[in-house]
Amino acid sequence: MSKINVLVVDDSAVVRQTLSDIINSAPDMQVCDTASDPYIAVEKIKHMRPDVITLDVEMPRMDGITFLRKIMSQHPIPVIICSSLVSNRSETHIKALEAGAVDIIAKPTLGTRKFLEESSQRICDAIRGAAQAQISKLISTKNSHGRSEKLTADAVIAASKTLAMSETTDKIIVIGASTGGTEAIRQVLEQMPRNCPAIAIVQHMPEGFTRSFADRLNSLCDINVKEAENGDSLLKGHALIAPGNRHLLIKRSGARYYVEIKDGPLVSRHRPSVDVLFRSAARYAGKNALGAILTGMGDDGAVGMLEMRESGAWTCGQDEASSVVYGMPKEALIKGGVVSQLPLSHIAAALIRESSR
């Protein structure tokens, strides 16, 4: 299998070198070239077509979002936006996803070894996902190399039988997504009525971006959307987004559902992890839960969705035709966790329909 060729576009020589070292250390990808600004990048692209571009936002001569729009209109290539996580720029980066970026990652920070290793894994996974975006026949993610030990949801929440549930308990919806998920989640939530069941969401996204992501969804949807805080109640007509770099768990006290925000190791190579959210829904909501797994690379959420189905929950997965990357929904279907596979445009209606039964 040929390696994924990556063009790194960033005005910082340090960042270009750091990203190059991380990418070149992975056996299935390589940096084919670097550019210090978009104009240089254009000249590079004329002579070679990379599989993926990593792109900074703030650069001389032309900003990254303008360049992104030009790439999408002239030479469509999967683009990952790289940011230094400056909080007041987060809205700009979310808009970059809407302009056509496949994913958004944090620039690697030279801190502790653990942080650098986790950043490296996030970067490589994002590149793999971007390289597969919109390709109809995807290479199985089971054969990926050079990855760190993969932990299950056991590392955060122990496997357990579903707690006893009252027949009158309100329904809740849990949603998991990764690559391409920001737009998929938007489409689902925009179709939700104001009296919809409470919703908890895990979208693989770096720390510092989930708040602006939630704020933007809140401005677009009829329901209320916010970044989850520890102890927040799950209420009808409200959706809670897992904060970046923290796990989100469903908990129950009497008839009240609420969320716990928890630290812990990467699960299925992610934090937050869809498997953690889905397992907690299986344990504390059981048949009162409904689950949807949307576009994304890898298999995070596949095991958790099977646990939900085994606990009596209704589940669905986004179909291949409407997925940016048909990885997570495919693995959940293979494992037997998906009750119904649907186009993205049908998922919200299906969740509402099934929640009323």
From TrEMBL:
Enzyme class, first EC level, given as a word: hydrolase
Function: Involved in chemotaxis. Part of a chemotaxis signal transduction system that modulates chemotaxis in response to various stimuli. Catalyzes the demethylation of specific methylglutamate residues introduced into the chemoreceptors (methyl-accepting chemotaxis proteins or MCP) by CheR. Also mediates the irreversible deamidation of specific glutamine residues to glutamic acid.
GO biological process: chemotaxis
Domain of life: Bacteria
Molecular functions (GO terms): phosphorelay response regulator activity; protein-glutamate methylesterase activity; protein-glutamine glutaminase activity
Domain called CheB-type methylesterase: residue spans: 166-357
Keyword Phosphoprotein part of the UniProt annotation: yes
Keyword terms of this UniProt record: Chemotaxis, Cytoplasm, Hydrolase, Phosphoprotein
Species name: Nitrincola nitratireducens
Reaction catalyzed: [protein]-L-glutamate 5-O-methyl ester + H2O = L-glutamyl-[protein] + methanol + H(+); L-glutaminyl-[protein] + H2O = L-glutamyl-[protein] + NH4(+)
Record's comment describing the protein's domains: Contains a C-terminal catalytic domain, and an N-terminal region which modulates catalytic activity.
Name of the molecule in the record: Protein-glutamate methylesterase/protein-glutamine glutaminase
